[in-house]
């Protein structure tokens, strides 16, 4: 069975689950997980975790993302993107200077509030919002804070005018950011209805577009028997966490997943990684109820078992 992280380029027309389904057939294995849903109309970077690496999928899901999007001013839709029905339209001639748009983007950079769109997988009372939306039911959605680390204008015009005005942006943001909602918010800053008319995810965590493979390319790698050398080790998902080599007298305790006395690094970091020969063997976090203790959050099958030859 393959183990590692496969940087996939998700093509338009497929859900993230479709990609996993197709990869299970190509790789002839079941233990595969994706690292964050991309809508069918969106293409881009979608790291896929194989085998033992599925244990680190949540860390990749929680990593920051970079997108390139097109915002269209002049109409809003039910889904906040180009797939929805138009619900508000303004056909007046519009004119924005480059500075007008840059000011709107600056106002939405940093920590901002977003209300998840009705057509989303966020759950309210145990039911996904899109299930309410399809039934024609609108429910109150809790707003949440997200971080927009960088929001830049890619279009180079000095003036933007017309009944509908479109421009391209690049967004570096935290997990949970809805770019289509951000497009609507940009429209609000400019005084008109708006929607996201196109979206590409260009980076997910440390994975970039230039390191990704399409499903066809994955099939080619399998046919050539070179897939394994193109996978990233699960340690790649733990790069930002402090690392500590396991002392020999701690090996058995960590191998057994024991609660241990906490270490100084957990006072300033959410997680720490124990390694052996540079490879992660366990992720530890503060114990939720035992003061001064830490417990394993993830364990990886890399420490030698008793009786194993070194």
Could you please describe the fold and organization of this structure?
The chain has 310 residues and is an alpha+beta fold. It folds into three domains: 4-63 and 205-236, Pseudouridine synthase; 65-204, Pseudouridine synthase (2-Layer Sandwich); 241-299, PUA domain (Archaeosine Trna-guanine Transglycosylase, Chain: A, domain 4, Roll). It has seven helices and 20 strands. The strands form five sheets. Strands 1, 2, 3, 4, 8, 11, 13, 14 and 15 form a nine-stranded mixed sheet that branches. It has a five-stranded mixed sheet with strand order 16-18-19-20-17. A two-stranded antiparallel ribbon has the order 5-6. A hairpin with a 2-residue loop joins β18 (272-276) and β19. The model has no long low-confidence stretch (mean pLDDT 92).
Summary of the model, kept short:
This protein has about 300 residues and is an alpha+beta fold. It contains seven helices and 20 strands.
């Amino acid at each position: 069975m393959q183990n590692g992280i496969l940087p996939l380029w998700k093509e338009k027309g497929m859900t993230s689950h479709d990609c996993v389904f197709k990869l299970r057939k190509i790789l002839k294995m079941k233990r595969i997980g994706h690292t964050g849903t991309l809508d069918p109309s969106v293409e881009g970077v979608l790291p896929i975790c194989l085998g033992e690496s599925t244990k680190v999928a949540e860390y990749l899901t929680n990593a920051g993302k970079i997108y390139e999007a097109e915002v269209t001013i002049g109409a809003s839709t039910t889904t906040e993107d180009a797939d929805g029905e138009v619900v508000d339209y303004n056909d007046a001639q519009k004119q924005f200077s480059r500075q007008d748009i840059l000011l709107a983007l600056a106002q939405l950079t940093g920590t901002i509030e977003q209300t998840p769109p009705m057509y989303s997988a966020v759950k309210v009372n145990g039911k996904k919002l899109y299930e309410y939306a399809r039934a024609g039911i609108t429910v109150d959605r809790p707003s949440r804070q997200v971080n927009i680390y960088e929001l830049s204008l890619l279009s180079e015009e000095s003036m933007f005018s017309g009944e509908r005005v479109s421009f391209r942006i690049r967004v570096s943001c935290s997990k949970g950011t809805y770019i289509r909602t951000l497009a609507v918010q940009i429209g609000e800053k400019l005084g008109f209805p708006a929607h996201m008319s196109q979206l590409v995810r260009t980076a997910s965590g440390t994975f970039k577009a230039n390191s990704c493979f399409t499903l066809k390319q994955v099939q080619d790698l399998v046919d050539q028997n070179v897939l394994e050398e193109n996978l990233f080790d699960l340690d790649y998902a733990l790069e930002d966490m402090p690392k500590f080599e396991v002392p020999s007298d701690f090996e058995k305790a960590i191998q057994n997943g024991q609660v241990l006395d906490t270490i100084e690094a957990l006072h300033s970091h959410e997680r720490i990684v124990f390694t052996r020969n540079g490879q992660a063997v366990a992720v530890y976090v503060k114990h939720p109820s035992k003061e001064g203790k830490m417990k394993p959050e993830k364990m990886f099958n890399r420490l030698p078992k008793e009786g194993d030859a070194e």
